[in-house]
Design goal:
By secondary structure, this protein is of the alpha/beta class. It folds into 2 domains: 225 residues, Aminopeptidase (3-Layer(aba) Sandwich), CATH 3.40.630; 97 residues, Elongation Factor Tu (Ef-tu), domain 3. It contains 8 helices and 18 strands.
Length: 344
């Protein structure tokens, strides 16, 4: 089996991390990915709502392999009287996982301002005991403080900031001992794995057992990334993180094959094929179930009414929707399983 180009995968991952792409804020990440795909020798098809598809070759019934480019983040709900920003989450972001995080506010005119997600009051030394013990709530006591000398709502509006502006969180990528720590491992790490597979297919002229599409979606975090599919798609394979936890089998150094998530079981026949492929290829994998709060773009395609089989695989990942952690071995095993599954 062709070796996993870990350097290429990491470079792609870090390049994507530098682009804020809170769900709905798709244009820059879409353009970057399209250019990356062109450099690999494939032709991207741009979808109307945001996202792109590349035909990797092969003949026969089509397998769509999906990975999503959108991130969880924030949006300006309104501007407070003191010039701070009242915000609401986009996707499954919770205050306890982002308070004190640095952010970038993107205005409708294209300006970018930095700031920090803060509790109010924001200094523990001058906060009464009863306020210290209150949980963070975007509606009541969590806001974004801008790195600008603003003291009123009008001063903030003069910067061009307004309700509906997107706010991206600082990813804070770092690597140590093979572990990768960053926001948005979900799902830019999996998107980087898919790009690395595409590179291997092109450079090594790997024959595919069937027609394969690479589908980079931009609305997975709010549930409708792949609710439209091209004609002739028979199967959808989602690449997404496998959250770790006390009751989970998922391991950061392994690839998980999903048996079920919070919506319903994955297709038993396709799941069995993936499990058999992993065994034959010597891939380090586990089977797992993800409840009560998990779904993938494969689910979205089924719920949209398509007559397809769907399955999902991905690297074990800790701290999902927070400051996430996975391991290069988990990315390699995901790469190995996907490449073995699509090749003759």
């Amino acid at each position: 089996m062709e070796g996993f180009d870990s350097r290429y995968c990491l470079d792609a991952f870090q390049a994507m991390l530098r682009i804020d792409s809170t769900t709905g804020q798709y244009r820059e990440i879409q353009e970057w990915t399209a250019e990356y795909i062109r450099k690999l020798g494939f032709t991207p098809q741009i979808t109307r709502k945001g996202g792109l598809i590349a035909d990797m070759g092969g003949e026969g019934e089509t397998l769509a392999v999906t990975a999503h480019l959108d991130d969880i983040g924030l949006m300006v709900r309104h501007i407070n009287a003191d010039g701070t920003l009242n915000v609401c989450p986009v996707g499954g972001l919770y205050p306890f996982y982002c308070v004190t995080e640095n952010v970038r506010v993107h205005t409708g005119e294209g300006k970018v301002y930095t700031g920090t997600v803060c509790r109010t009051p924001n200094s523990i030394h001058v906060t009464e005991e009863e306020l210290r013990n209150q949980p963070g709530d975007f509606r009541k006591n969590v806001c974004v403080v801008l790195d600008e000398p603003v003291k009123t709502a009008e001063e903030t509006r003069r910067l061009g900031i307004e309700t509906g502006d997107y706010i991206g969180l600082e990813p804070r990528f770092t690597q140590s001992g093979g572990y990768i720590k960053s926001r948005f491992v979900d799902d830019k790490a999996c998107a980087a794995v898919l790009l690395t597979v595409m590179k291997a297919v092109r450079e090594e002229n790997i024959p595919l057992r069937r027609n394969v599409l690479a589908y980079f979606a931009c609305y997975e975090e709010i549930g409708h990334g792949t609710t439209w599919l091209p004609e002739n798609v028979r199967d959808v394979l989602a690449l997404d993180i496998a959250p770790t936890g006390p009751d989970q089998n998922s391991d950061e150094q392994k690839v998980s094959i999903f048996a079920k998530d919070s919506r319903f079981p994955y297709h038993s026949g396709m799941t069995a094929e993936l499990r058999d492929t992993a065994r034959r290829a010597g891939v380090d994998y586990v089977m797992d179930i993800f409840t009560p709060h998990y779904g993938t773009d494969g689910d979205a395609s089924v719920l949209a009414g398509y007559d397809i089989r769907h399955a999902a695989i991905g690297p074990g990942t800790a701290n999902s929707h927070g400051y996430e952690r996975t391991h290069m071995a988990g990315l390699k095993n995901t790469y190995d399983l996907l490449l073995a599954y699509i090749r003759k």
